[in-house]
Amino acid sequence: MNAYVDREMRHQVTMEQTEETIEGQKIRIDKELNLKGKVCPYTFIESMLALEEMKIGEVLRVIVDYPPAVCDVPKSLKNEGYEILDVSSTNETDWAILVKNTEFK
Amino acid sequence: MKFSEEQIHRYSRQMILPGIGGKGQRKLAEAKVFIMGAGGLGSPAAIYLAAAGVGTIGLADSDHVEIHNLQRQILHRTCDIGLPKVESGRKTLESLNPEVKVEIYCERVTSTNIQRIIKGYDLVLDGSDNFPTRFLVNDACYFERKTLISGAILRYDGQLSTFKPHAGGPCYRCLCPEPPPPGLVPSCQEAGVLGAVAGIIGLFQANEALKEILGVGQSMVGRFLLFNALNLSFAEMKIQRNPECPLCGENPTIKELIDYTQSCSTQNTVPLQTSTRTLD
């Protein structure tokens, strides 16, 4: 796919606050980033760019459908000092990565 | 500044580096680097800084492209012979990265215009090919409190350091207080240079400029690197501020810029330090 074609689609960030329950704990989602159709390393870069604009303690949900990104994005974000709260499959093709913007930065 | 899809793709391989990310890329985009000389050192430095996304690059050189420049001055092509080097340089940089703003100065840089020129820049890279310019750039950077990334080459040797006297480090005159006497300046025949050596030192200058802009790694302030291509050897000396420096010392005698005249010239190379003080 031509990476420049989907300009309209990029950064589908919703600012609505939603909640998710992870291991019985309610977590507030501050931002969601839809990276479906994107490959590495752009999945990581776009996640990082979104986190850089968020406040400490806020949580970002990243949706990916590129299988290697399911491992690579959490690993790379963790290396940068962000906290990975959860990685889970949401349907047959998509995965959701929950990441918290931490004080470490 | 929001990154476009194209910018993310263009800079992706450096944005994923620890210490860069979006914040670092923004610092590069906002940075203004002035390069003295669009020759052997300035060419590779300018090309890599433009490729990395440094927002504004100033290029100063009053010469025109000649065929004997092409052995090492990779900003220019055979078809550019006869063009002002800064015009040719701007064309190369803009074709590599249209996002970069290239400011050109075709005039001879002297004591009357240098401070006005460098005032608007954050960093200065010296890739000049003669001692008068080298001292002029150093003194102007001192008076304007600009970080100076200095590179020099001759034959198979190269040198590198970063001068930041406004932050406590030495200046070029701390090592070499005055231009060398004519007998110590290499004659034309002695002034050959291997193009790859210019490339290596110019890229070290670009590397140090990127580090200074990003605030990563160990700066070359207070360090003086000596490179020899034949042995592929590196040596590093610690250098300190000289309290007797005529420019930044305790009792400075130089209060304004000086236009030295070129003695026996090294027209096509960049002079190395010739003072024995550097080896103290």
Task: Explain what the structure shows.
The complex is a heterodimer of chains A (105) and B (280). With 105 residues, chain A is an alpha+beta fold. Chain A contains 2 helices and 6 strands. In chain A, helix 1 (42-52) links the parallel strand 3 and strand 4 (59-64). In chain A, helix 1 crosses helix 2. The longest helix of chain A has 13 residues, at 67-79. Chain A starts with 17 loop residues before the first strand and ends in a 5-residue tail after the last strand. Chain B has helices spanning 5-15, 21-30, 42-52, 85-96, 114-118, 131-144, 172-175, 195-214; strands at residues 32-36, 56-60, 101-105, 123-126, 147-154, 157-163, 223-228, 233-238. An 8-stranded mixed sheet of chain B has the order 3-2-1-4-5-6-7-8, sandwiched between helices. In chain B, helix 3 packs parallel to helix 4 (85-96). Chain B is globular and about 55 Å long. The chains are: A alpha+beta (105), B alpha/beta (280). The A-B interface holds A 3-4, 6-7, 10, 41-42, 44-46, 48-49, 52, 76, 79-80 and B 3-6, 8-9, 12-13, 15-16, 18, 21-23.
Topology:
The complex is a heterodimer of chains A (105) and B (280).
Chain A: E1 18-22, E2 25-29, E3 31-34, H1 42-52, E4 59-64, H2 67-79, E5 83-89, E6 95-100
Parallel strand pairs in A: 3-4
Antiparallel strand pairs in A: 1-2, 4-6, 5-6
Helix pairs in contact in A: 1-2
Chain B: H1 5-15, H2 21-30, E1 32-36, H3 42-52, E2 56-60, H4 85-96, E3 101-105, H5 114-118, E4 123-126, H6 131-144, E5 147-154, E6 157-163, H7 172-175, H8 195-214, E7 223-228, E8 233-238
Parallel strand pairs in B: 1-2, 1-4, 2-3, 4-5
Antiparallel strand pairs in B: 5-6, 6-7, 7-8
Helix pairs in contact in B: 3-4, 3-8
